[in-house]
DNA sequence: GAAAAAATGTGACAGATGTCACAAACTTTG
DNA sequence: CAAAGTTTGTGACATCTGTCACATTTTTTC
């Protein structure tokens, strides 16, 4: 079974190769170190599974995956991640990745690859619990039709998080009065009455 | 490695036992046929993984899982499902199940169990793609844990529609002062600060 | 650099909001 | 029925909110 390993950090890539080949059932015919290499190596080797870091210079894992899946929709791509990059989970999911697992999780990686080959999708420990939350802050609302600028958008988001004017002022380095003025203008533009209606508007339009 | 198998349908349970033990690495010390049995067998056998049908008479897999996870939060529970019962996915997910896989997927089940033992969460083929959609179908929020009664729920809904106290009072045939008191109590119970946070809470929890 | 435009700020005001202590009306329970 | 509990209401109060007119500062444009 061929597994292509791609990671920015050569040490990680080599370690993974060692771990995977230790079981005797997997072969790692090449190591890549960027998204660009991933695409090229995938084409030439046609591995059963692609195990790839999600963050890389030159071309991110996500971009590479998009490219590869465009040409090979059946590709089995498993992302490697650290604890820190939650925000990519949803993108990876929508892209059609077969999983999202933690680099730290050495013993867990080989079984994960097996499971993917068996047609499953795999997510590292805590990740699944986060998916519902991450999906909530999904799509961007299109404010363009309402003549709402960036700063106003930012204020809308903070109102929709339940912050009061003083807190919003602190976060944006404005005075409380200015925030009040902004909100006044926003309410006028959206034909709403108060900040609660603004929060409601925010959640209903997404 | 001990795997407890629980399925309504004895044929399925026996088949699973055969498949899992074929590899030589897994042992299936018992077969259960209901949620109730699952709970009892889990207690007596303490398996490494519990593989359980989600729909069963007597006590559903979900209820059994809830019970087991209450006592053993580290329990590794994997649900078996057919194509038809999508609606349970989200519940299983929130409950803390380690996966949700398809019965049909014979070859995939053993690797899935391995992956779960390796600390991963596993989802059968198409299931992951459905999660975003399923999460959108706003389920009823469970207020029971917060000691929120029906009238209070109604008021929460009206606040979340953006109505002011006077409007809420009119709709519920209460005085404005009473509505204020209600909201005051609700905010206290939910540990929120103001009506906007209440509206935010409402939309974030569904 | 001066003029114009945009962003930010201030202060005053009215009204809405949330809290609290307590009262009145109604319902349930013994 | 009486006591106890629940629901609904009131009034006072401090605070937050939204509006407005206008001032100040910063940035853009010519």
Describe the structure.
The structure is a homodimer of 206-residue chains. By secondary structure, the first copy, chain A, is of the alpha/beta class. Chain A has two domains: 3-135, Rossmann fold (3-Layer(aba) Sandwich), CATH 3.40.50.2300; 144-204, Arc Repressor Mutant, subunit A (Orthogonal Bundle), CATH 1.10.10. Chain A has ten helices and six strands; from the N terminus they run βαβαβαβαβαβααααα. Chain A has helices at 10-22, 35-45, 61-71, 89-95, 106-117, 127-136, 150-159, 165-172, 176-190, 195-204; strands spanning 3-6, 31-32, 49-53, 77-81, 99-102, 120-124. In chain A, strands 2-1-3-4-5-6 form a six-stranded parallel beta sheet, sandwiched between helices. In chain A, strand 3 (49-53), helix 3 and strand 4 form a beta-alpha-beta unit. In chain A, helix 2 packs parallel to helix 3 (61-71). The two termini of chain A are 43 Å apart. At the A-B interface, helix 4, helix 5, strand 6, helix 6 and helix 10 of A face helix 4, helix 5, strand 6, helix 6 and helix 10 of B. Strand 6 of chain A pairs antiparallel with strand 6 of chain B, so a sheet runs across the interface. The structure holds a DNA duplex (30 and 30 nucleotides).
The gist of it:
The structure is a homodimer of 206-residue chains. By secondary structure, chain A is an alpha/beta fold.
At the fold tier of CATH, the topology name of the largest domain in chain A is Rossmann fold
Level-1 CATH class name of the largest domain in chain A: Alpha Beta
Strand order across the largest sheet of chain A: 2-1-3-4-5-6
Q: What is the terminal-to-terminal distance of chain A?
A: 43 Å
Helical element count of chain A? Answer: 10
CA-based shape of chain A: elongated
* CATH homologous superfamily assignment of the largest domain in chain A: Response regulator
Q: Mean of residue pLDDT of chain A?
A: 84
- Assembly type: homodimer
Poorly predicted parts of chain A: none
* Order of helix and strand elements from N to C terminus of chain A: EHEHEHEHEHEHHHHH
Helix content of chain A: 40-55%
Class by SSE composition of chain A: alpha/beta
The most extensive interface, with participating residues per chain, is: A-B, 47 and 46 residues
Please give the domain count of chain A.
2
Largest sheet of chain A: 6 strands, parallel
């Amino acid at each position: 079974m061929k597994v292509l390993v791609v990671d920015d950090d050569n040490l990680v890539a080599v370690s993974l190769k060692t771990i995977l080949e230790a079981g005797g059932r997997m072969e790692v015919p090449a190591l890549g170190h960027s998204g660009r290499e991933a695409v090229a190596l995938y084409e030439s080797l046609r591995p059963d599974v692609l195990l790839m870091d999600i963050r890389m210079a030159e071309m991110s894992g996500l971009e590479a995956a998009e490219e590869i899946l465009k040409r090979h929709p059946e590709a089995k791509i498993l992302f490697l991640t650290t604890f820190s990059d939650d925000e990519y989970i949803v993108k990876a999911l929508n892209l059609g990745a077969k999983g999202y697992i933690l680099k730290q999780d050495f013993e867990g990686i080989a079984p994960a690859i097996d499971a993917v080959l068996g047609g499953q999708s795999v997510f590292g420990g805590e990740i699944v619990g986060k998916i519902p939350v991450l999906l909530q802050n999904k799509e961007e609302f299109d404010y363009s039709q309402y003549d709402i600028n960036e700063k106003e958008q930012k204020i809308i988001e903070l109102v929709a998080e339940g912050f009061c004017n003083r807190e919003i002022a602190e976060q944006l380095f404005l005075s409380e009065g200015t925030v009040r003025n902004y909100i006044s203008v926003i309410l006028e533009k959206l034909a709403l009455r108060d900040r609660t209606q603004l929060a409601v508007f925010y959640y209903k339009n997404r």
